[in-house]
Amino acid sequence: METKTPTTILIKGGTIVTATDKYEADIFISGEVIQTIGLNLEVSADKVIDAKGKYIFPGGIDTHTHMELPFMGTYSSDDFETGTRAGLYGGTTSIIDFAIQKQGETLNAIIDEYHRKASKAVGDYAFHLGVTDFNSRTKDEIKDIILKRGISSFKVFMAYKGALMVDDRQIMELMTETGKYGGMVIAHCENGDMIDGLVNEHRALGHTEPKYHGICHPELAEAEASGRFIDLAYHTKSPCYIVHMTCEGALNKVKDACKRNQKVNVETCIQYLVLNDELYEKPGFEASKWIFSPPLRKPKDQEALWASMRQGLVHTVGTDHCPFCMDQKKMGEKDFSKIPNGAPMIENRMEVLFSEGVVKGKISLNKFVEVTSTNAAKIFGMFPKKGAIAIGSDADLVVFDPNEKHTISVETHHMRCDYNGFEGMEVTGKTKTVILRGTVAIEDGKALVGKGFGKFIHRNAHNAELRREKEIRASDE
Ligand code: URP
Ligand code: ZN
Ligand code: ZN
């Protein structure tokens, strides 16, 4: 018998949680969008979801993923199909993935390639554009990329010397060019030369184990590059966003910027909030599971990140989802600097943050929504289509049981990776039903949408807040 996809859905009796509110109401969805929100709605619908006792969050937005990324001699093991599906299981309905330019090639070429790769996505997706080779030719591509191709954030790497790293001059010129059209430069902030020098020193001493990765990526390297990036943005009167911030030293640079009324947008990732560098002491090669850049830090850095989130200095929690299976990690068995950097994270972000953050009283429920979706949508030009529960917004919704306890494990996760970095962690709170653009995507532990269901999110430039930052900087003169 043919089953008809419901075109109208009524979610009854749930508690809607947004970045600012918490209230009980029904939600009526028609087509891809939210049609009505109200008390005891008397409407008939193709499908009714009983959400009594559950929270309803806006669909999660992961600001930082790498699907099928060619990196360090291999490819990250999730592609857009498996990775976005795993995200949906955890309540993430949209991702922003990094299309990273190949040096010597055009920016448009990599955007075309990423559209091809992402055409099989199950969840929605946007792209940040990684710029590794900024020159007069790539400069000429920027305007149309922002105004016509729907990509308004441009990532630079201040690390990965010899591969992805750009210099300060390129960063400033990119800031100036993207700023003309309402774009923003975002950065991986670590001092690549400092890291390169340390790696050479330790290799010369015969140090091979994974833990040397952490030792070669010190807090100072991240703090220095973060401060420099912030200064470059100040100097060029540009908005800025720092990806995967991990440490107190870097946060102090953000605090310094506040003193001169400079807004710095900051992302951290779930692993930096809940795991620390004790994991690098695991015996044998196990520590390679947590080799990514920047590395895990100390408990004092975790505390600084939680506090900064509460204070509004950390705006988004992403994942830097970049999984590699253990046989891929083994490429660095004899040399820590050859371990592919990255870990599987996308599926666990929302549940781990809820459990460790909200349940343990570190952040409020509204803050949880702010950092898992709303701020991302606002900063990256997708609001209120995404990141909101409002009439006319995309019906991207997560029905979440705040009381259900479960244990995270590779045995039950959906990421294409043979380990889980949170293995054995007991969490409170579970994603039950996920709706993406008005279609039930996850229900009863099953994915009901498949390959190609995900859509590209064409993002706007000229976010009002970013424009304001430029105006403030200009008026400083
Ligand atoms: O270790 C990481 N983070 N791998 C992915 C590339 C990056 O730096 O974001
Ligand atoms: Zn990075
Ligand atoms: Zn990354």
Shape: globular
Mean pLDDT: 96
Approximate strand percentage: 15-25%
Bound compounds: N-(aminocarbonyl)-beta-alanine, zinc ion
Major β-sheet annotation: 9 strands, mixed
Number of helices: 14
CATH superfamily of the domain at 60-387: Metal-dependent hydrolases
The CATH class assignment of the domain at 60-387 is: Alpha Beta
CATH architecture of the domain at 60-387: Alpha-Beta Barrel
Please give the share of residues in helix.
Answer: 25-40%
The structural class is: alpha/beta
Find the CATH topology of the domain at 60-387. TIM Barrel
End-to-end separation: 70 Å
User: Count of DSSP E strands?
Assistant: 19
Rg, please? 21 Å
Low-confidence stretches: none
Can you give keywords for this protein?
477 residues, 9-stranded mixed sheet, 14 helices, 32% helix, globular, binds N-(aminocarbonyl)-beta-alanine, binds zinc ion
Annotate the secondary structure layout:
Layout: E1 8-17, E2 22-30, E3 33-38, E4 47-50, E5 55-58, E6 60-65, E7 70-71, E8 74-75, H1 80-89, E9 92-100, H2 107-118, E10 124-130, H3 136-147, E11 153-157, H4 168-179, E12 184-188, H5 192-204, H6 211-216, H7 219-235, E13 240-242, H8 248-259, E14 265-269, H9 270-274, H10 299-310, E15 316-318, H11 326-329, H12 349-359, H13 365-379, E16 397-407, E17 426-436, E18 439-443, E19 446-447, H14 464-475
The site of N-(aminocarbonyl)-beta-alanine (URP) has 8 residues, from loops.
